[in-house]
Amino acid sequence: MHNVVKLIFLLIVLQVSGQQILPENKRAMVVDEILENRFNNLLPQLMDASDIDMWVVISREYNEDPVIKTMLPATWLNARRRTILLFYRDKTNNTIEKLAVARYNVGKSIKSAWDKEKEPNQWKRLMQLISERNPKKIGLNFSKDHNIADGLDKTDYDEFMQNLPKSFQKSVVSAEQLAVRWIETRTESEMVIYNQLVDITHDIIAEAFSEKVITPGVTTTTEVEWWMRQKVTDLGLETWFHPTVDVQRSKEDLVGHLYSFSGRPDDMVILPGDLLHCDFGITYLRLNTDCQELAYVLKPEEKAAPDFLINGLKDGNRVQDFLTGNMVEGKTGNEILAKSLAEAKAAGLRPSIYTHPLGLYGHSAGTTIGMWDAQGGVMKDDGENYPLNPNTVYAIELNTTITIPEWNRDIRIMLEEAGFFGANGFRYVNGRQKELMLIPRLKTHQGN
Asked: What is the mean pLDDT of residues 159-179?
Protein backbone atom coordinates (compact mmCIF):
# COMPACT_ATOMS: atom_id res chain seq x y z
CA MET A 1 0.00 0.00 0.00
CA HIS A 2 3.01 2.27 0.43
CA ASN A 3 3.34 2.67 -3.35
CA VAL A 4 -0.34 3.59 -3.62
CA VAL A 5 0.00 6.34 -1.02
CA LYS A 6 3.11 7.62 -2.80
CA LEU A 7 1.28 7.57 -6.13
CA ILE A 8 -1.71 9.50 -4.77
CA PHE A 9 0.65 12.09 -3.26
CA LEU A 10 2.45 12.49 -6.60
CA LEU A 11 -0.81 13.00 -8.47
CA ILE A 12 -2.08 15.56 -5.96
CA VAL A 13 1.20 17.51 -6.16
CA LEU A 14 1.03 17.52 -9.95
CA GLN A 15 -2.57 18.70 -9.82
CA VAL A 16 -1.88 21.53 -7.38
CA SER A 17 1.17 22.66 -9.34
CA GLY A 18 -0.95 22.88 -12.49
CA GLN A 19 1.20 20.33 -14.36
CA GLN A 20 -1.79 18.58 -15.83
CA ILE A 21 -0.41 16.39 -18.61
CA LEU A 22 2.31 13.91 -17.67
CA PRO A 23 5.09 12.90 -20.09
CA GLU A 24 4.92 9.37 -21.46
CA ASN A 25 7.42 7.83 -19.04
CA LYS A 26 5.56 9.23 -16.02
CA ARG A 27 2.26 8.04 -17.47
CA ALA A 28 3.69 4.53 -17.75
CA MET A 29 4.78 4.67 -14.12
CA VAL A 30 1.30 5.72 -12.99
CA VAL A 31 -0.47 3.10 -15.13
CA ASP A 32 1.75 0.28 -13.87
CA GLU A 33 1.50 1.31 -10.21
CA ILE A 34 -2.27 1.47 -10.44
CA LEU A 35 -2.38 -1.90 -12.20
CA GLU A 36 -0.21 -3.52 -9.53
CA ASN A 37 -2.49 -2.15 -6.82
CA ARG A 38 -5.56 -3.45 -8.63
CA PHE A 39 -4.07 -6.92 -9.01
CA ASN A 40 -2.84 -7.20 -5.42
CA ASN A 41 -5.66 -5.50 -3.52
CA LEU A 42 -8.79 -5.20 -5.65
CA LEU A 43 -8.75 -8.47 -7.60
CA PRO A 44 -8.77 -10.79 -4.53
CA GLN A 45 -11.85 -8.97 -3.21
CA LEU A 46 -13.64 -9.28 -6.54
CA MET A 47 -12.83 -12.96 -6.93
CA ASP A 48 -14.15 -13.67 -3.43
CA ALA A 49 -17.33 -11.70 -4.10
CA SER A 50 -17.83 -13.53 -7.42
CA ASP A 51 -17.12 -16.95 -5.86
CA ILE A 52 -14.52 -17.75 -8.54
CA ASP A 53 -11.15 -19.04 -7.33
CA MET A 54 -9.52 -19.29 -10.78
CA TRP A 55 -9.87 -16.83 -13.62
CA VAL A 56 -8.35 -17.72 -16.98
CA VAL A 57 -8.10 -14.91 -19.55
CA ILE A 58 -7.08 -16.00 -23.05
CA SER A 59 -6.41 -13.68 -25.96
CA ARG A 60 -4.51 -13.53 -29.23
CA GLU A 61 -2.56 -10.67 -30.72
CA TYR A 62 -4.77 -8.08 -32.49
CA ASN A 63 -7.91 -9.88 -31.37
CA GLU A 64 -7.72 -8.81 -27.76
CA ASP A 65 -10.29 -9.62 -25.12
CA PRO A 66 -11.55 -6.25 -23.73
CA VAL A 67 -10.56 -7.46 -20.26
CA ILE A 68 -6.99 -8.39 -21.11
CA LYS A 69 -6.44 -4.96 -22.65
CA THR A 70 -6.99 -3.48 -19.18
CA MET A 71 -4.44 -5.87 -17.64
CA LEU A 72 -1.45 -5.28 -19.90
CA PRO A 73 1.47 -3.17 -18.65
CA ALA A 74 2.07 0.29 -20.08
CA THR A 75 4.75 -0.94 -22.49
CA TRP A 76 2.44 -3.57 -23.99
CA LEU A 77 0.04 -2.18 -26.57
CA ASN A 78 -1.34 -5.60 -27.55
CA ALA A 79 -1.30 -9.20 -26.46
CA ARG A 80 1.62 -11.20 -27.88
CA ARG A 81 0.90 -14.30 -29.93
CA ARG A 82 -1.54 -16.17 -27.68
CA THR A 83 -1.37 -14.64 -24.20
CA ILE A 84 -2.96 -16.64 -21.39
CA LEU A 85 -3.30 -15.18 -17.90
CA LEU A 86 -4.20 -17.30 -14.89
CA PHE A 87 -5.30 -15.83 -11.57
CA TYR A 88 -5.69 -18.22 -8.66
CA ARG A 89 -7.21 -17.08 -5.39
CA ASP A 90 -6.49 -19.14 -2.25
CA LYS A 91 -8.91 -17.58 0.19
CA THR A 92 -7.83 -19.82 3.09
CA ASN A 93 -4.23 -18.61 2.92
CA ASN A 94 -5.24 -15.14 1.65
CA THR A 95 -3.00 -15.35 -1.41
CA ILE A 96 -3.44 -14.67 -5.09
CA GLU A 97 -1.22 -16.06 -7.84
CA LYS A 98 -0.85 -14.10 -11.05
CA LEU A 99 0.66 -16.25 -13.76
CA ALA A 100 1.21 -15.96 -17.50
CA VAL A 101 1.26 -19.03 -19.71
CA ALA A 102 3.65 -17.11 -21.90
CA ARG A 103 7.38 -17.11 -22.45
CA TYR A 104 7.88 -13.85 -20.58
CA ASN A 105 6.54 -11.92 -17.64
CA VAL A 106 3.55 -9.68 -18.33
CA GLY A 107 4.65 -6.53 -16.53
CA LYS A 108 5.76 -6.49 -12.90
CA SER A 109 2.81 -8.35 -11.46
CA ILE A 110 2.25 -11.38 -13.71
CA LYS A 111 5.07 -13.93 -13.80
CA SER A 112 5.81 -16.29 -16.65
CA ALA A 113 4.90 -19.90 -15.85
CA TRP A 114 5.77 -21.55 -19.16
CA ASP A 115 9.15 -22.89 -20.23
CA LYS A 116 8.60 -23.94 -23.84
CA GLU A 117 11.74 -26.05 -23.84
CA LYS A 118 10.33 -28.21 -21.03
CA GLU A 119 6.74 -28.29 -22.34
CA PRO A 120 6.36 -27.20 -25.98
CA ASN A 121 2.54 -27.27 -25.87
CA GLN A 122 1.04 -24.10 -24.34
CA TRP A 123 -2.33 -25.72 -23.67
CA LYS A 124 -0.75 -28.66 -21.86
CA ARG A 125 1.19 -26.29 -19.63
CA LEU A 126 -2.01 -24.42 -18.80
CA MET A 127 -3.71 -27.68 -17.85
CA GLN A 128 -0.78 -28.61 -15.61
CA LEU A 129 -1.16 -25.33 -13.74
CA ILE A 130 -4.91 -25.88 -13.37
CA SER A 131 -4.52 -29.45 -12.14
CA GLU A 132 -1.86 -28.48 -9.59
CA ARG A 133 -4.20 -25.89 -8.03
CA ASN A 134 -7.39 -27.92 -8.25
CA PRO A 135 -9.82 -24.96 -8.42
CA LYS A 136 -13.50 -25.23 -7.51
CA LYS A 137 -14.61 -22.83 -10.24
CA ILE A 138 -12.80 -21.79 -13.39
CA GLY A 139 -14.08 -18.50 -14.79
CA LEU A 140 -13.86 -17.82 -18.52
CA ASN A 141 -14.85 -14.63 -20.33
CA PHE A 142 -18.06 -15.59 -22.08
CA SER A 143 -21.32 -13.74 -21.48
CA LYS A 144 -24.64 -13.16 -23.20
CA ASP A 145 -25.53 -10.08 -21.15
CA HIS A 146 -22.28 -8.07 -21.10
CA ASN A 147 -20.27 -7.57 -24.28
CA ILE A 148 -17.16 -6.47 -22.37
CA ALA A 149 -17.19 -9.81 -20.52
CA ASP A 150 -17.58 -11.85 -23.74
CA GLY A 151 -14.04 -11.58 -25.08
CA LEU A 152 -13.08 -15.26 -25.32
CA ASP A 153 -13.28 -16.25 -28.98
CA LYS A 154 -14.74 -19.56 -30.10
CA THR A 155 -11.42 -20.99 -31.26
CA ASP A 156 -9.75 -20.49 -27.90
CA TYR A 157 -12.83 -21.70 -26.02
CA ASP A 158 -12.93 -24.90 -28.06
CA GLU A 159 -9.19 -25.47 -27.60
CA PHE A 160 -9.47 -24.88 -23.86
CA MET A 161 -12.36 -27.29 -23.39
CA GLN A 162 -10.78 -29.97 -25.58
CA ASN A 163 -7.59 -29.88 -23.49
CA LEU A 164 -9.24 -29.47 -20.07
CA PRO A 165 -9.29 -32.73 -18.06
CA LYS A 166 -12.79 -34.18 -17.75
CA SER A 167 -12.68 -33.83 -13.98
CA PHE A 168 -12.70 -30.02 -14.39
CA GLN A 169 -15.26 -29.72 -17.20
CA LYS A 170 -18.14 -29.02 -14.80
CA SER A 171 -16.06 -26.42 -12.96
CA VAL A 172 -16.10 -24.00 -15.91
CA VAL A 173 -18.41 -21.01 -15.39
CA SER A 174 -18.97 -17.61 -16.94
CA ALA A 175 -16.73 -14.98 -15.37
CA GLU A 176 -19.10 -12.18 -16.42
CA GLN A 177 -19.74 -10.84 -12.90
CA LEU A 178 -16.02 -10.85 -12.10
CA ALA A 179 -15.10 -9.29 -15.46
CA VAL A 180 -17.69 -6.52 -15.13
CA ARG A 181 -16.64 -5.74 -11.56
CA TRP A 182 -13.00 -5.62 -12.66
CA ILE A 183 -13.81 -3.16 -15.44
CA GLU A 184 -16.24 -0.97 -13.48
CA THR A 185 -14.57 -0.67 -10.06
CA ARG A 186 -12.41 2.38 -9.44
CA THR A 187 -9.68 2.57 -6.80
CA GLU A 188 -8.78 5.55 -4.65
CA SER A 189 -5.78 6.48 -6.78
CA GLU A 190 -7.82 6.21 -9.98
CA MET A 191 -10.34 8.67 -8.59
CA VAL A 192 -7.57 11.21 -7.97
CA ILE A 193 -6.72 10.84 -11.66
CA TYR A 194 -10.36 11.05 -12.68
CA ASN A 195 -10.79 14.47 -11.13
CA GLN A 196 -7.84 15.63 -13.21
CA LEU A 197 -9.21 14.08 -16.41
CA VAL A 198 -12.58 15.77 -16.09
CA ASP A 199 -10.90 19.08 -15.25
CA ILE A 200 -8.87 18.86 -18.47
CA THR A 201 -12.04 17.98 -20.39
CA HIS A 202 -13.86 20.99 -18.98
CA ASP A 203 -10.92 23.27 -19.81
CA ILE A 204 -10.87 22.18 -23.45
CA ILE A 205 -14.62 22.71 -23.81
CA ALA A 206 -14.38 26.13 -22.17
CA GLU A 207 -11.69 27.20 -24.63
CA ALA A 208 -13.56 25.75 -27.61
CA PHE A 209 -16.72 27.62 -26.58
CA SER A 210 -15.03 31.01 -26.39
CA GLU A 211 -14.03 33.88 -28.64
CA LYS A 212 -10.55 32.31 -28.89
CA VAL A 213 -12.02 29.71 -31.23
CA ILE A 214 -15.43 31.00 -32.34
CA THR A 215 -16.07 34.13 -34.39
CA PRO A 216 -19.85 34.39 -34.81
CA GLY A 217 -20.89 34.60 -38.41
CA VAL A 218 -17.64 32.99 -39.56
CA THR A 219 -16.78 29.86 -37.57
CA THR A 220 -18.65 26.65 -38.31
CA THR A 221 -19.61 23.79 -36.03
CA THR A 222 -17.33 21.44 -37.97
CA GLU A 223 -14.36 23.76 -37.47
CA VAL A 224 -14.95 23.73 -33.71
CA GLU A 225 -15.14 19.93 -33.73
CA TRP A 226 -11.80 19.63 -35.48
CA TRP A 227 -10.29 22.30 -33.24
CA MET A 228 -11.21 20.14 -30.23
CA ARG A 229 -9.79 17.02 -31.88
CA GLN A 230 -6.55 18.83 -32.70
CA LYS A 231 -6.31 20.29 -29.20
CA VAL A 232 -6.44 16.78 -27.76
CA THR A 233 -3.67 15.65 -30.12
CA ASP A 234 -1.53 18.71 -29.36
CA LEU A 235 -1.77 17.95 -25.63
CA GLY A 236 -0.52 14.43 -26.27
CA LEU A 237 -3.87 12.86 -25.40
CA GLU A 238 -6.40 10.71 -27.23
CA THR A 239 -10.14 10.82 -27.67
CA TRP A 240 -12.34 7.73 -27.84
CA PHE A 241 -14.90 9.34 -30.17
CA HIS A 242 -14.96 12.24 -32.56
CA PRO A 243 -16.26 15.45 -30.89
CA THR A 244 -19.59 16.84 -32.02
CA VAL A 245 -20.93 20.37 -31.91
CA ASP A 246 -24.52 21.29 -32.82
CA VAL A 247 -26.75 24.34 -32.79
CA GLN A 248 -30.29 25.03 -31.65
CA ARG A 249 -31.75 28.34 -32.75
CA SER A 250 -35.04 30.09 -33.22
CA LYS A 251 -35.67 29.17 -36.87
CA GLU A 252 -35.33 25.36 -36.88
CA ASP A 253 -37.80 22.73 -35.73
CA LEU A 254 -36.82 20.22 -33.05
CA VAL A 255 -35.95 16.93 -34.71
CA GLY A 256 -35.76 13.39 -33.30
CA HIS A 257 -33.25 12.14 -30.75
CA LEU A 258 -31.21 10.49 -33.50
CA TYR A 259 -30.15 13.99 -34.57
CA SER A 260 -28.12 14.24 -31.36
CA PHE A 261 -26.08 11.16 -32.31
CA SER A 262 -26.03 11.11 -36.11
CA GLY A 263 -27.19 13.10 -39.09
CA ARG A 264 -26.34 16.62 -37.92
CA PRO A 265 -25.57 18.96 -40.80
CA ASP A 266 -21.87 19.79 -41.24
CA ASP A 267 -20.40 23.25 -41.37
CA MET A 268 -23.26 25.17 -39.80
CA VAL A 269 -22.13 28.76 -39.35
CA ILE A 270 -22.42 29.76 -35.70
CA LEU A 271 -24.51 32.91 -35.28
CA PRO A 272 -25.40 35.32 -32.47
CA GLY A 273 -28.39 34.00 -30.53
CA ASP A 274 -27.41 30.33 -31.01
CA LEU A 275 -27.46 27.77 -28.24
CA LEU A 276 -24.39 25.56 -28.77
CA HIS A 277 -24.04 22.02 -27.50
CA CYS A 278 -21.02 19.73 -27.60
CA ASP A 279 -20.34 16.06 -26.87
CA PHE A 280 -16.67 15.49 -26.06
CA GLY A 281 -14.41 13.12 -24.17
CA ILE A 282 -10.75 12.26 -23.74
CA THR A 283 -8.66 9.19 -22.92
CA TYR A 284 -5.76 9.60 -20.50
CA LEU A 285 -4.00 7.17 -18.17
CA ARG A 286 -6.37 4.44 -19.42
CA LEU A 287 -9.47 6.25 -18.20
CA ASN A 288 -12.11 8.03 -20.26
CA THR A 289 -14.32 11.08 -19.91
CA ASP A 290 -17.61 11.95 -21.62
CA CYS A 291 -19.05 15.43 -21.29
CA GLN A 292 -21.83 17.51 -22.86
CA GLU A 293 -22.06 21.22 -22.11
CA LEU A 294 -23.86 24.27 -23.44
CA ALA A 295 -22.91 27.79 -24.51
CA TYR A 296 -24.88 30.78 -25.70
CA VAL A 297 -23.66 33.19 -28.41
CA LEU A 298 -24.45 36.71 -27.29
CA LYS A 299 -26.17 39.14 -29.61
CA PRO A 300 -24.44 42.55 -29.86
CA GLU A 301 -26.80 44.21 -27.40
CA GLU A 302 -26.89 41.36 -24.87
CA LYS A 303 -25.01 41.13 -21.58
CA ALA A 304 -26.40 37.73 -20.58
CA ALA A 305 -28.20 34.74 -22.00
CA PRO A 306 -32.00 35.01 -22.21
CA ASP A 307 -33.86 33.97 -19.07
CA PHE A 308 -35.64 31.15 -20.90
CA LEU A 309 -32.28 29.48 -21.62
CA ILE A 310 -30.98 30.12 -18.11
CA ASN A 311 -34.13 28.52 -16.70
CA GLY A 312 -33.87 25.69 -19.22
CA LEU A 313 -30.43 24.78 -17.88
CA LYS A 314 -31.88 24.79 -14.38
CA ASP A 315 -34.51 22.31 -15.58
CA GLY A 316 -31.71 20.12 -16.92
CA ASN A 317 -30.00 20.27 -13.53
CA ARG A 318 -33.29 19.25 -11.90
CA VAL A 319 -33.46 16.12 -14.05
CA GLN A 320 -29.87 15.36 -13.03
CA ASP A 321 -30.90 15.68 -9.38
CA PHE A 322 -33.83 13.30 -9.78
CA LEU A 323 -31.55 10.72 -11.37
CA THR A 324 -28.61 10.97 -9.01
CA GLY A 325 -30.93 11.00 -5.99
CA ASN A 326 -32.22 7.60 -7.07
CA MET A 327 -28.81 6.00 -7.51
CA VAL A 328 -28.96 3.44 -4.72
CA GLU A 329 -26.64 0.48 -4.29
CA GLY A 330 -28.20 -2.77 -5.49
CA LYS A 331 -30.86 -1.13 -7.66
CA THR A 332 -30.85 -2.09 -11.33
CA GLY A 333 -30.66 0.45 -14.12
CA ASN A 334 -34.30 -0.11 -15.07
CA GLU A 335 -35.42 0.52 -11.48
CA ILE A 336 -33.40 3.73 -11.24
CA LEU A 337 -34.63 4.88 -14.64
CA ALA A 338 -38.32 4.28 -13.96
CA LYS A 339 -38.31 6.08 -10.61
CA SER A 340 -36.28 9.04 -11.91
CA LEU A 341 -38.46 9.55 -14.98
CA ALA A 342 -41.65 9.31 -12.93
CA GLU A 343 -40.46 11.89 -10.42
CA ALA A 344 -39.21 14.29 -13.07
CA LYS A 345 -42.45 14.05 -15.04
CA ALA A 346 -44.47 14.59 -11.85
CA ALA A 347 -42.50 17.83 -11.41
CA GLY A 348 -43.64 19.01 -14.84
CA LEU A 349 -40.45 18.16 -16.74
CA ARG A 350 -40.08 16.28 -20.03
CA PRO A 351 -36.99 14.15 -19.41
CA SER A 352 -35.04 11.54 -21.33
CA ILE A 353 -32.30 9.61 -19.50
CA TYR A 354 -29.60 7.47 -21.14
CA THR A 355 -26.82 7.27 -18.55
CA HIS A 356 -23.99 4.78 -19.04
CA PRO A 357 -20.99 3.43 -17.12
CA LEU A 358 -17.70 5.26 -17.67
CA GLY A 359 -14.15 4.22 -16.89
CA LEU A 360 -11.65 1.97 -18.62
CA TYR A 361 -13.94 2.29 -21.64
CA GLY A 362 -16.11 5.23 -22.66
CA HIS A 363 -19.21 3.07 -22.87
CA SER A 364 -18.00 0.84 -20.09
CA ALA A 365 -19.24 -2.03 -17.92
CA GLY A 366 -21.95 -1.74 -15.29
CA THR A 367 -25.67 -1.21 -15.13
CA THR A 368 -27.46 0.58 -17.96
CA ILE A 369 -29.73 3.43 -16.86
CA GLY A 370 -31.83 3.95 -19.96
CA MET A 371 -31.04 4.39 -23.64
CA TRP A 372 -32.22 7.27 -25.80
CA ASP A 373 -34.40 4.84 -27.75
CA ALA A 374 -35.44 2.70 -24.73
CA GLN A 375 -37.01 5.01 -22.18
CA GLY A 376 -39.21 2.19 -20.92
CA GLY A 377 -36.12 0.29 -19.81
CA VAL A 378 -33.60 -1.94 -21.54
CA MET A 379 -33.71 -5.66 -22.15
CA LYS A 380 -31.79 -8.20 -20.09
CA ASP A 381 -29.01 -8.54 -22.64
CA ASP A 382 -28.26 -4.83 -22.26
CA GLY A 383 -27.34 -5.22 -18.59
CA GLU A 384 -30.78 -4.62 -17.04
CA ASN A 385 -30.27 -7.36 -14.46
CA TYR A 386 -26.99 -5.91 -13.22
CA PRO A 387 -27.07 -3.85 -10.01
CA LEU A 388 -25.49 -0.49 -9.24
CA ASN A 389 -22.27 -1.13 -7.32
CA PRO A 390 -20.14 1.25 -5.23
CA ASN A 391 -16.83 2.73 -6.37
CA THR A 392 -18.07 3.17 -9.92
CA VAL A 393 -18.20 6.09 -12.35
CA TYR A 394 -21.12 6.94 -14.62
CA ALA A 395 -21.66 9.45 -17.40
CA ILE A 396 -24.78 11.23 -16.14
CA GLU A 397 -26.22 11.68 -19.62
CA LEU A 398 -29.74 13.01 -20.20
CA ASN A 399 -31.86 15.81 -21.55
CA THR A 400 -35.08 17.63 -20.92
CA THR A 401 -37.31 19.19 -23.57
CA ILE A 402 -38.46 22.73 -22.95
CA THR A 403 -40.87 24.99 -24.83
CA ILE A 404 -39.61 28.45 -25.78
CA PRO A 405 -42.51 30.76 -26.75
CA GLU A 406 -40.01 33.39 -27.89
CA TRP A 407 -38.67 30.94 -30.49
CA ASN A 408 -42.06 29.33 -31.12
CA ARG A 409 -40.50 25.87 -30.73
CA ASP A 410 -39.21 23.18 -28.39
CA ILE A 411 -35.51 22.62 -27.70
CA ARG A 412 -33.56 20.05 -25.73
CA ILE A 413 -31.24 20.86 -22.86
CA MET A 414 -28.65 18.08 -23.27
CA LEU A 415 -26.15 17.50 -20.45
CA GLU A 416 -23.54 14.93 -19.53
CA GLU A 417 -21.08 14.87 -16.63
CA ALA A 418 -18.93 12.23 -14.93
CA GLY A 419 -20.29 11.17 -11.54
CA PHE A 420 -18.88 8.84 -8.87
CA PHE A 421 -21.03 6.49 -6.82
CA GLY A 422 -19.35 5.38 -3.61
CA ALA A 423 -19.88 4.49 0.03
CA ASN A 424 -21.17 8.01 0.74
CA GLY A 425 -23.53 8.06 -2.22
CA PHE A 426 -23.23 10.10 -5.39
CA ARG A 427 -20.97 13.04 -6.21
CA TYR A 428 -19.86 14.68 -9.43
CA VAL A 429 -16.23 13.92 -10.18
CA ASN A 430 -15.36 17.52 -11.03
CA GLY A 431 -18.57 19.46 -10.67
CA ARG A 432 -21.27 20.04 -13.31
CA GLN A 433 -22.43 22.87 -15.52
CA LYS A 434 -24.88 25.16 -13.72
CA GLU A 435 -24.36 28.29 -15.82
CA LEU A 436 -24.30 28.75 -19.57
CA MET A 437 -20.93 29.62 -21.08
CA LEU A 438 -21.09 32.90 -22.99
CA ILE A 439 -19.48 33.68 -26.34
CA PRO A 440 -17.77 36.11 -26.14
CA ARG A 441 -16.96 36.16 -22.45
CA LEU A 442 -18.07 39.42 -20.85
CA LYS A 443 -15.24 41.81 -20.04
CA THR A 444 -15.22 44.59 -17.49
CA HIS A 445 -13.94 47.90 -18.94
CA GLN A 446 -12.66 50.58 -16.61
CA GLY A 447 -12.06 54.30 -17.14
CA ASN A 448 -14.08 57.20 -18.54
From this structure: 96
